[in-house]
Amino acid sequence: MQYGYFDDEAREYVITRPDTPYPWINYLGCDEFYGLFSNTSGGYCFYRDARMLRLTRYRYNNVPADAGGRYFYLRDGGDVWTPSWMPMKSALDRYECRHGMGYSKISSSRNGLAFSQTSFVPLGDNCEIHKVILTNESKAQKNVDIFSFIEFCLWNANDDMTNFQRNFSIGEVEVEGSRIYHKTEYRERRNHFAVWAVNVPINGFDTDRQSFLGLYNGFDQAKTPFEGKANNSIASGWAPIGSHHIKAVLAAGESKTFVFVLGYCENPADQKWDASFKDFISGKSGNKGVINSKVINKTPANALLEKYKTAEAADTALAALNVYWKNLLARFTVDAEDKKMARMAGVWNQYQCMVTFNMSRSASYFESGIGRGMGFRDSNQDLLGFVHLVPERARARILDIAATQFPDGSAYHQYQPLTKRGNNDVGSGFNDDPLWLICGVAAYIKETGDYSILDEKVPFDNNEALADTLFIHLKRSFYYTVTNKGPHGLPLIGRADWNDCLNLNCFSSTPGESFQTTANFESGIAESVLIAAIFVFTGPDFAEICRRTGRADEAESAEKEIAVMIEAVNQHGWDGDWFLRAYDAHGKKIGSRECDDGKIFIESNGFAAMAGIGAEDGRAQKALDSVKEHLDTPYGIVLLQPAYKDYHLELGEVSSYPPGYKENAGIFCHNNPWVTIGETVLGRGNRAFETYKNICPAYREDDSDLRRMEPYVYAQMVAGKDAPHFGEAKNSWLTGTAAWTFVSISQYILGVRPVYDGLLIDPCIPSTMKNYTVMRHFRGADYHITVDNSAGIEKGVKSITVDGNALDGDVLPVFGDGKKHEVIVKMGV
Ligand code: BGC
Ligand code: NOJ
């Protein structure tokens, strides 16, 4: 069953009933201030770091309940209801939620009172705007009470939900007119505060949770709206909230608009307090919540609220956001008969790539925002799907990531977004990490032609004294793999490779121990065929970069190492019908027909095919045929088969999951596009597209009761065929699936691929796809590419014309002239 539909024109997903099978969310913000926003106005917001600077509270283990958000309680006569459905689950006459590019809009009505809430983070300002419109659609006057509601988080989200002995005593607020300030810890070491304001005079307020809700009540039973009168409570400790009470009289047919702003403000350390404030003793100042004769210096809040004090100003900011996204997405658009593919590739997949680039794996409805920082491997992969949108930000990110690399080429697995320093909790030793840096930098250079990034001086281990050029970082990455090989000449796996759960040096028998950070010994034996394939895929980029920067000798040495690695895979990485996955710490094969469970894995097969290993002698083809035979399902390709039934001490976390979930034979979508790309390398467009489609959410929109996750974004995992809930997705939004799928569809299926000298045209499509067009912005020009496949083939370009002239070869040149160029591609043999 379907819970909504795509509005392609508006680039919105329209949810038509509030009780979706799971909260279906959107992300507000694309720079420093972010909000997670569910289809019932649940979620929270933060400035830069979801753990350290969280403005509003969100609860541990709270989904799907989704309690907490920006709520509006309406009291229409005696009838109290919440127009976003939650938290009261109010019966609504009408409901709709439109999730768009960086904004969401909820509209509903009940008994002739219509409500709409448009929520977004404006470009360049650190706040959420919620524009609320009430319309009296009835024939009689309505007297409506509006109660806004948010609950403040005491900034550090981890402390907020664990350290009650302190928290219940530290909450502080200040109220001035229609502005509620949250200033917990401002008196001591914080120079920032939050403000929750509305642009009209209010009739009352609450800042103390218990006063507003009533003792023992949840958000669904807030007492104040039923009483119809705010308490003007000033929070002191316990739980600070922000609630405005507005009385609105609406004549028949009349609308009223309110602009609510939730902002983050900072003051210089020596200007924290308002020097002009004198009137606290008489109480005439209107300030409530005065501490030690001081009130906050509100200069930054005044500026922010002055800017957004009218509905017109909010509309202008939203229009600017729309233009921003329109321009961004104009950099790659698709027009094709297959609308599902076109809308995913042209809009939603790229949107998700922006979100994963911004969030890494920190804050979603499956990632708490308090744990993981930015991943070395994750962020390098995320930028593959983002670099065409905002190349400058990808460049900056690359330099941040590289600065956390160790001098020997290995890397901190994660770093913290606020400090940009490597994170010791997780440490290093994930031996695939270094290679992803080469992959990310190569993608950046191919997109931009900017080789100057290689000359940037970048610290090692965040230590300026150890800084060297980015080129040297790449070289250390490359040679880290070369110098860390095991008995078969294959790369040592370390704590894990891309598959975080293949922990071959862990041997953990203690419950609760982290599989990723517990290494009982480093065997010096356990090897990864996947890392070998990643090396063969991305190593040639290192060689090419050497050659193009006048380092021909370096290039040759690198190519020799790649040849040695290919030979090692040929000798020791092939199992007869597919590629092996690894050798364990005892030198035993993993992913072999000799194994009882885990005979075949997806990753090494997809990546080897992608890297072209075995392309000439039929092994790549055989490997992908085996993948299809043993691992394929209608919902995507499972990670391995047969699923591990028992826990294997020598394998680690992979065997800890019940069969069919996560890395133990779940459909781990991230690696599916590797097979897709591998299929295009073999020229099998029909199969490539099938693997693309099977994990693509838009094709499962009408199956939402089973899939449960948002139909407009990829999920990290779909339960595999061994699981009781086969086909159910989990962990939507923050996954490397976004970037890799965008690479697979845009570069390898539709075949518009940035290379060092221009845009390579190399489609590999289903034979039934007769034509399509792609508009691609590339290095300062627009390429309007029309592909004609009336021949009905899967791969092969017969001719290309550019602006009417025949092109020699298949690489569109770099024009950089700000103009639009017409490209006609005829497929054929
Ligand atoms: C998950 C992996 C994740 C790892 C690191 C594991 O429990 O299954 O997907 O990468 O933890 O946090
Ligand atoms: C999610 C992690 O973020 C990613 O780094 C890893 O490759 C996959 N899980 C597979 O384990």
Describe the structure.
The longest helix is centred in the middle third of the chain and has 21 residues, at 339-359. This protein is 26% helix and 25% strand. The model has no long low-confidence stretch (mean pLDDT 96). It is of the alpha+beta class and 829 residues long. The chain contains 19 helices and 43 strands. Strand 27 (582-583) and strand 28 (589-590) form a beta hairpin. Bound molecules: beta-D-glucopyranose and 1-deoxynojirimycin. Beta-D-glucopyranose (BGC) binds at residues 500-501, 516, 653, 662-663. 1-deoxynojirimycin (NOJ) is lined by residues 361, 375, 377-378, 498-501, 663.
Radius of gyration: 28 Å
Strand order of the largest sheet: 1-2-9-10-11-12-19-16-15-14-20
* Strand-pairing-aware structural class: alpha+beta
In percent terms, what proportion of residues is strand?
A: 25-35%
What is the number of E strands? 43
- What's the pLDDT, averaged over the residues? 96
* Main sheet attributes: strand count, strand direction, barrel closure: 11 strands, antiparallel
Q: Report helical residue fraction.
A: 25-40%
Task: Report the total helices.
Answer: 19
How far apart the termini lie comes to 43 Å
List bound small molecules: beta-D-glucopyranose, 1-deoxynojirimycin
Low-confidence stretches: none
What is the overall shape?
A: globular
Entry summary:
The chain has 19 helices and 43 strands. With 829 residues, it is α+β, with helices and mostly antiparallel strands.
